[in-house]
# Entry
Amino acid sequence: MPATIRLRQPDDWHVHLRDGAMLEAVVGATARQFGRAIVMPNLQPPITTVAAAQAYGERIRRALPAGSGFQPLLTAYLTETIDPREVEAGFRQGVWVACKLYPARATTNAEAGVGDLMAITPVLETMERIGMPLLIHGEVTDPEIDIFDREAVFIERHLAPLLQRHPGLKVVLEHITTSDAVDFVRSGPPQLAATITPHHLHINRNAMFRGGLRPDFYCLPVAKRELHRLALRAAATSGDPCFFLGTDSAPHARSAKESACGCAGIFNAPYAIESYAAVFEQEGALERLEAFASEHGPRFYGLPLNPGQIILERRPHAVDERLALTDAAGAPVELVPFHAGETLTWQLV
Ligand code: NCD
Ligand code: ZN
# Structure
Protein backbone atom coordinates (compact mmCIF):
# COMPACT_ATOMS: atom_id res chain seq x y z
CA MET A 1 0.00 0.00 0.00
CA PRO A 2 1.56 3.31 -1.02
CA ALA A 3 1.96 5.99 1.66
CA THR A 4 1.89 8.88 -0.77
CA ILE A 5 0.35 9.60 -4.15
CA ARG A 6 1.91 12.16 -6.45
CA LEU A 7 -0.33 13.50 -9.16
CA ARG A 8 -0.02 16.03 -11.90
CA GLN A 9 -2.19 18.88 -10.61
CA PRO A 10 -5.82 18.05 -11.43
CA ASP A 11 -8.57 20.30 -12.80
CA ASP A 12 -12.27 20.36 -11.96
CA TRP A 13 -14.29 20.30 -15.17
CA HIS A 14 -17.60 21.26 -13.50
CA VAL A 15 -17.99 23.40 -10.40
CA HIS A 16 -20.38 25.97 -8.94
CA LEU A 17 -18.40 28.77 -7.32
CA ARG A 18 -21.45 31.01 -6.77
CA ASP A 19 -21.05 34.73 -6.17
CA GLY A 20 -20.74 37.28 -3.38
CA ALA A 21 -20.30 35.95 0.15
CA MET A 22 -20.64 32.30 -0.90
CA LEU A 23 -17.96 32.70 -3.59
CA GLU A 24 -15.61 34.18 -1.03
CA ALA A 25 -16.33 31.35 1.37
CA VAL A 26 -15.88 28.44 -1.05
CA VAL A 27 -13.42 29.37 -3.81
CA GLY A 28 -10.37 28.59 -1.68
CA ALA A 29 -11.42 24.94 -1.30
CA THR A 30 -11.37 24.46 -5.07
CA ALA A 31 -8.24 26.57 -5.64
CA ARG A 32 -6.11 24.64 -3.16
CA GLN A 33 -6.31 21.42 -5.17
CA PHE A 34 -7.24 22.25 -8.74
CA GLY A 35 -5.24 24.20 -11.33
CA ARG A 36 -8.32 25.18 -13.31
CA ALA A 37 -12.05 24.70 -13.11
CA ILE A 38 -14.95 24.99 -15.50
CA VAL A 39 -17.19 27.41 -13.61
CA MET A 40 -20.92 27.04 -14.04
CA PRO A 41 -22.87 30.13 -15.16
CA ASN A 42 -26.13 29.49 -13.24
CA LEU A 43 -25.94 32.66 -11.19
CA GLN A 44 -28.87 34.97 -10.67
CA PRO A 45 -29.06 36.47 -13.24
CA PRO A 46 -27.26 33.83 -15.34
CA ILE A 47 -24.07 34.63 -17.27
CA THR A 48 -25.34 35.28 -20.79
CA THR A 49 -23.11 38.14 -21.98
CA VAL A 50 -19.38 38.54 -22.50
CA ALA A 51 -19.39 41.56 -20.20
CA ALA A 52 -21.09 39.62 -17.38
CA ALA A 53 -18.58 36.78 -17.76
CA GLN A 54 -15.63 39.19 -17.66
CA ALA A 55 -16.96 40.82 -14.51
CA TYR A 56 -17.62 37.43 -12.88
CA GLY A 57 -14.09 36.27 -13.73
CA GLU A 58 -12.75 39.40 -11.99
CA ARG A 59 -14.84 38.69 -8.89
CA ILE A 60 -13.53 35.13 -8.76
CA ARG A 61 -9.92 36.27 -9.10
CA ARG A 62 -10.41 38.88 -6.37
CA ALA A 63 -11.88 36.23 -4.03
CA LEU A 64 -8.87 33.90 -4.43
CA PRO A 65 -6.37 33.47 -1.62
CA ALA A 66 -3.23 35.58 -2.14
CA GLY A 67 -0.71 33.95 -4.45
CA SER A 68 -3.14 31.38 -5.85
CA GLY A 69 -2.45 30.36 -9.45
CA PHE A 70 -5.96 28.98 -9.90
CA GLN A 71 -7.52 29.74 -13.26
CA PRO A 72 -11.31 29.92 -13.62
CA LEU A 73 -12.60 28.82 -17.03
CA LEU A 74 -15.91 30.53 -17.58
CA THR A 75 -18.99 29.34 -19.42
CA ALA A 76 -21.97 30.94 -21.12
CA TYR A 77 -25.52 30.06 -20.06
CA LEU A 78 -27.59 29.16 -23.10
CA THR A 79 -31.02 30.70 -23.44
CA GLU A 80 -33.38 30.55 -26.38
CA THR A 81 -32.55 34.16 -27.18
CA ILE A 82 -28.76 34.25 -26.78
CA ASP A 83 -27.09 35.68 -29.88
CA PRO A 84 -24.66 33.29 -31.61
CA ARG A 85 -22.40 36.28 -32.35
CA GLU A 86 -22.11 36.99 -28.61
CA VAL A 87 -21.21 33.35 -27.96
CA GLU A 88 -18.56 33.39 -30.68
CA ALA A 89 -17.11 36.77 -29.62
CA GLY A 90 -16.62 35.61 -26.02
CA PHE A 91 -15.01 32.38 -27.19
CA ARG A 92 -12.61 34.15 -29.57
CA GLN A 93 -11.66 36.64 -26.84
CA GLY A 94 -10.96 33.77 -24.43
CA VAL A 95 -13.57 35.04 -21.95
CA TRP A 96 -15.52 31.78 -21.91
CA VAL A 97 -14.51 28.34 -23.10
CA ALA A 98 -17.83 26.48 -23.40
CA CYS A 99 -21.61 26.88 -23.28
CA LYS A 100 -23.82 25.27 -20.66
CA LEU A 101 -27.19 23.89 -21.65
CA TYR A 102 -29.76 23.65 -18.89
CA PRO A 103 -33.12 22.29 -19.99
CA ALA A 104 -35.53 24.92 -18.64
CA ARG A 105 -36.31 24.30 -14.95
CA ALA A 106 -34.15 21.15 -14.75
CA THR A 107 -32.20 22.33 -11.68
CA THR A 108 -31.06 25.27 -9.53
CA ASN A 109 -31.37 28.57 -11.45
CA ALA A 110 -32.40 26.82 -14.66
CA GLU A 111 -35.58 28.87 -15.12
CA ALA A 112 -33.97 30.80 -17.99
CA GLY A 113 -32.74 27.59 -19.64
CA VAL A 114 -33.77 26.10 -22.96
CA GLY A 115 -37.31 24.74 -23.42
CA ASP A 116 -37.07 23.90 -27.11
CA LEU A 117 -33.70 22.58 -28.25
CA MET A 118 -34.48 23.43 -31.88
CA ALA A 119 -34.57 27.12 -30.86
CA ILE A 120 -30.80 27.09 -30.25
CA THR A 121 -29.86 25.41 -33.54
CA PRO A 122 -28.06 28.54 -34.82
CA VAL A 123 -25.94 28.73 -31.64
CA LEU A 124 -25.08 25.04 -31.85
CA GLU A 125 -24.09 25.44 -35.51
CA THR A 126 -21.79 28.29 -34.54
CA MET A 127 -20.24 26.26 -31.72
CA GLU A 128 -19.75 23.30 -34.04
CA ARG A 129 -17.97 25.56 -36.54
CA ILE A 130 -15.63 27.20 -34.01
CA GLY A 131 -14.93 24.06 -31.90
CA MET A 132 -16.61 25.33 -28.74
CA PRO A 133 -17.80 22.56 -26.38
CA LEU A 134 -21.42 22.20 -25.29
CA LEU A 135 -21.84 21.12 -21.66
CA ILE A 136 -25.18 19.50 -21.00
CA HIS A 137 -27.29 19.00 -17.90
CA GLY A 138 -28.85 15.85 -19.32
CA GLU A 139 -32.28 15.51 -17.76
CA VAL A 140 -35.75 15.87 -19.21
CA THR A 141 -38.04 18.13 -17.22
CA ASP A 142 -41.31 16.48 -18.23
CA PRO A 143 -43.14 15.95 -14.90
CA GLU A 144 -44.66 12.74 -16.32
CA ILE A 145 -41.20 11.16 -16.34
CA ASP A 146 -40.08 9.56 -13.11
CA ILE A 147 -37.21 11.58 -11.62
CA PHE A 148 -34.95 8.49 -11.61
CA ASP A 149 -35.48 8.04 -15.37
CA ARG A 150 -34.89 11.63 -16.45
CA GLU A 151 -31.29 11.16 -17.56
CA ALA A 152 -31.91 8.01 -19.58
CA VAL A 153 -34.95 9.56 -21.27
CA PHE A 154 -32.99 12.73 -22.07
CA ILE A 155 -30.31 10.67 -23.81
CA GLU A 156 -32.83 8.84 -25.94
CA ARG A 157 -35.18 11.74 -26.73
CA HIS A 158 -32.79 14.65 -26.95
CA LEU A 159 -29.09 13.85 -26.83
CA ALA A 160 -28.93 11.18 -29.52
CA PRO A 161 -30.88 13.32 -32.04
CA LEU A 162 -28.79 16.40 -31.14
CA LEU A 163 -25.56 14.55 -31.88
CA GLN A 164 -27.02 13.42 -35.21
CA ARG A 165 -27.93 16.99 -36.11
CA HIS A 166 -24.50 18.31 -35.06
CA PRO A 167 -21.98 15.54 -35.75
CA GLY A 168 -19.00 17.86 -35.32
CA LEU A 169 -20.07 19.38 -32.00
CA LYS A 170 -17.94 18.66 -28.93
CA VAL A 171 -20.29 17.63 -26.15
CA VAL A 172 -19.78 16.87 -22.46
CA LEU A 173 -22.65 15.10 -20.76
CA GLU A 174 -22.20 16.49 -17.27
CA HIS A 175 -22.34 14.63 -13.95
CA ILE A 176 -23.58 11.32 -15.35
CA THR A 177 -25.51 9.09 -12.96
CA THR A 178 -26.62 6.00 -14.89
CA SER A 179 -25.26 2.95 -16.68
CA ASP A 180 -27.30 4.19 -19.66
CA ALA A 181 -25.13 7.32 -19.80
CA VAL A 182 -21.93 5.31 -19.34
CA ASP A 183 -22.84 3.03 -22.25
CA PHE A 184 -23.97 5.89 -24.47
CA VAL A 185 -20.81 7.96 -23.94
CA ARG A 186 -18.46 5.01 -24.18
CA SER A 187 -19.91 3.90 -27.50
CA GLY A 188 -20.18 7.45 -28.86
CA PRO A 189 -17.81 9.43 -31.07
CA PRO A 190 -14.54 10.88 -29.68
CA GLN A 191 -16.01 14.36 -29.42
CA LEU A 192 -18.47 13.08 -26.78
CA ALA A 193 -17.31 12.88 -23.16
CA ALA A 194 -18.75 12.86 -19.64
CA THR A 195 -17.83 14.14 -16.21
CA ILE A 196 -18.36 12.06 -13.07
CA THR A 197 -18.78 13.51 -9.56
CA PRO A 198 -17.30 12.05 -6.37
CA HIS A 199 -20.71 11.76 -4.74
CA HIS A 200 -22.21 9.66 -7.52
CA LEU A 201 -19.24 7.31 -7.11
CA HIS A 202 -19.81 7.02 -3.35
CA ILE A 203 -23.55 7.03 -2.78
CA ASN A 204 -26.63 5.48 -4.27
CA ARG A 205 -30.17 6.74 -3.74
CA ASN A 206 -30.53 4.99 -0.37
CA ALA A 207 -28.21 7.63 1.12
CA MET A 208 -31.02 10.20 0.95
CA PHE A 209 -33.29 8.07 3.14
CA ARG A 210 -30.95 6.34 5.61
CA GLY A 211 -32.68 6.54 9.00
CA GLY A 212 -34.69 9.58 7.91
CA LEU A 213 -34.63 12.25 5.23
CA ARG A 214 -31.05 13.37 4.48
CA PRO A 215 -31.02 16.57 2.46
CA ASP A 216 -27.23 16.64 2.31
CA PHE A 217 -27.31 13.78 -0.19
CA TYR A 218 -29.87 15.41 -2.46
CA CYS A 219 -28.50 16.73 -5.71
CA LEU A 220 -29.45 16.79 -9.37
CA PRO A 221 -29.27 14.58 -11.25
CA VAL A 222 -30.42 12.61 -8.23
CA ALA A 223 -28.35 9.57 -7.17
CA LYS A 224 -29.67 6.33 -8.68
CA ARG A 225 -29.69 2.60 -7.82
CA GLU A 226 -26.58 0.71 -6.76
CA LEU A 227 -26.14 -0.89 -10.19
CA HIS A 228 -25.69 2.58 -11.66
CA ARG A 229 -23.17 3.60 -9.03
CA LEU A 230 -21.16 0.48 -9.83
CA ALA A 231 -21.25 1.28 -13.56
CA LEU A 232 -19.98 4.81 -12.81
CA ARG A 233 -17.14 3.45 -10.67
CA ALA A 234 -16.12 1.07 -13.44
CA ALA A 235 -16.23 3.90 -16.00
CA ALA A 236 -14.26 6.41 -13.92
CA THR A 237 -11.53 3.90 -13.08
CA SER A 238 -11.40 2.31 -16.55
CA GLY A 239 -8.80 4.65 -18.03
CA ASP A 240 -11.18 5.46 -20.88
CA PRO A 241 -10.39 9.06 -21.95
CA CYS A 242 -14.06 9.93 -22.47
CA PHE A 243 -14.59 10.06 -18.69
CA PHE A 244 -13.06 12.76 -16.52
CA LEU A 245 -13.28 14.59 -13.23
CA GLY A 246 -16.03 17.13 -12.59
CA THR A 247 -17.08 17.57 -8.99
CA ASP A 248 -20.36 19.45 -9.47
CA SER A 249 -19.61 20.90 -6.05
CA ALA A 250 -22.77 22.95 -5.49
CA PRO A 251 -22.79 24.73 -2.12
CA HIS A 252 -26.02 25.85 -0.53
CA ALA A 253 -26.17 27.29 2.98
CA ARG A 254 -27.19 24.65 5.52
CA SER A 255 -30.43 26.51 6.16
CA ALA A 256 -31.34 26.28 2.47
CA LYS A 257 -30.62 22.51 2.37
CA GLU A 258 -32.40 21.68 5.62
CA SER A 259 -35.74 23.23 4.80
CA ALA A 260 -39.21 22.19 3.71
CA CYS A 261 -38.14 22.55 0.07
CA GLY A 262 -34.41 21.94 0.30
CA CYS A 263 -32.05 22.94 -2.50
CA ALA A 264 -30.33 20.37 -4.72
CA GLY A 265 -26.57 20.31 -4.52
CA ILE A 266 -23.71 18.64 -2.65
CA PHE A 267 -20.75 20.67 -1.42
CA ASN A 268 -17.82 18.34 -2.05
CA ALA A 269 -15.07 20.86 -2.86
CA PRO A 270 -13.22 20.70 0.49
CA TYR A 271 -12.10 17.05 0.05
CA ALA A 272 -12.80 16.40 -3.61
CA ILE A 273 -9.50 14.86 -4.65
CA GLU A 274 -9.36 12.81 -1.45
CA SER A 275 -12.86 11.56 -2.20
CA TYR A 276 -11.92 10.44 -5.71
CA ALA A 277 -8.70 8.87 -4.38
CA ALA A 278 -10.77 6.73 -1.98
CA VAL A 279 -12.82 5.37 -4.89
CA PHE A 280 -9.79 4.62 -7.05
CA GLU A 281 -8.07 2.88 -4.15
CA GLN A 282 -11.15 0.79 -3.35
CA GLU A 283 -11.31 -0.23 -7.02
CA GLY A 284 -7.59 -1.11 -7.10
CA ALA A 285 -7.02 1.55 -9.75
CA LEU A 286 -4.92 4.23 -8.04
CA GLU A 287 -2.54 4.22 -11.01
CA ARG A 288 -5.40 5.48 -13.19
CA LEU A 289 -6.41 8.38 -10.93
CA GLU A 290 -4.01 10.83 -12.59
CA ALA A 291 -5.37 10.24 -16.08
CA PHE A 292 -8.96 10.73 -14.90
CA ALA A 293 -8.18 13.77 -12.76
CA SER A 294 -5.44 15.55 -14.69
CA GLU A 295 -5.16 14.36 -18.30
CA HIS A 296 -8.43 13.39 -19.97
CA GLY A 297 -10.10 16.75 -19.32
CA PRO A 298 -7.40 19.03 -20.72
CA ARG A 299 -6.99 16.77 -23.74
CA PHE A 300 -10.70 16.95 -24.47
CA TYR A 301 -10.73 20.75 -24.12
CA GLY A 302 -7.49 21.11 -26.12
CA LEU A 303 -5.64 22.73 -23.20
CA PRO A 304 -2.13 22.02 -21.89
CA LEU A 305 -1.71 19.68 -18.93
CA ASN A 306 -0.90 21.44 -15.67
CA PRO A 307 2.85 21.56 -15.03
CA GLY A 308 2.61 21.32 -11.22
CA GLN A 309 2.06 18.39 -8.88
CA ILE A 310 0.01 17.68 -5.80
CA ILE A 311 0.77 15.15 -3.09
CA LEU A 312 -1.70 13.05 -1.13
CA GLU A 313 -0.58 11.28 2.03
CA ARG A 314 -2.12 8.27 3.68
CA ARG A 315 -3.22 10.05 6.83
CA PRO A 316 -6.74 9.16 8.00
CA HIS A 317 -8.62 12.28 9.06
CA ALA A 318 -12.15 12.97 10.21
CA VAL A 319 -14.27 15.30 8.13
CA ASP A 320 -16.07 18.00 10.10
CA GLU A 321 -19.86 17.76 10.43
CA ARG A 322 -20.15 21.41 9.47
CA LEU A 323 -17.89 24.04 8.06
CA ALA A 324 -18.33 27.48 9.54
CA LEU A 325 -16.80 29.58 6.79
CA THR A 326 -16.60 33.32 6.70
CA ASP A 327 -16.78 35.64 3.77
CA ALA A 328 -14.36 38.53 3.26
CA ALA A 329 -16.54 40.79 5.42
CA GLY A 330 -16.37 38.28 8.29
CA ALA A 331 -20.01 37.11 8.03
CA PRO A 332 -20.60 33.41 8.86
CA VAL A 333 -21.67 30.88 6.20
CA GLU A 334 -22.49 27.39 7.48
CA LEU A 335 -22.10 24.50 5.04
CA VAL A 336 -22.22 20.72 5.37
CA PRO A 337 -19.37 19.14 3.40
CA PHE A 338 -19.69 15.84 1.57
CA HIS A 339 -18.29 13.02 3.80
CA ALA A 340 -19.31 14.96 6.94
CA GLY A 341 -18.53 12.86 10.01
CA GLU A 342 -16.66 10.21 7.99
CA THR A 343 -12.96 9.42 7.97
CA LEU A 344 -11.03 9.86 4.74
CA THR A 345 -7.80 7.94 4.23
CA TRP A 346 -5.96 10.30 1.93
CA GLN A 347 -5.08 13.87 2.71
CA LEU A 348 -3.81 16.58 0.42
CA VAL A 349 -0.59 18.10 1.76
C1 NCD B 1 -26.54 22.59 -8.92
C2 NCD B 1 -26.65 23.94 -8.23
O1 NCD B 1 -27.03 24.00 -7.06
O2 NCD B 1 -26.32 24.97 -8.86
N1 NCD B 1 -27.19 21.61 -8.12
C3 NCD B 1 -26.97 20.27 -8.15
O3 NCD B 1 -27.71 19.53 -7.49
N2 NCD B 1 -26.00 19.75 -8.86
C4 NCD B 1 -27.08 22.68 -10.29
C5 NCD B 1 -26.75 21.49 -11.15
O4 NCD B 1 -25.62 21.27 -11.53
O5 NCD B 1 -27.67 20.71 -11.43
ZN1 ZN C 1 -23.67 21.44 -11.68
The two ends are 18 Å apart (CA to CA).
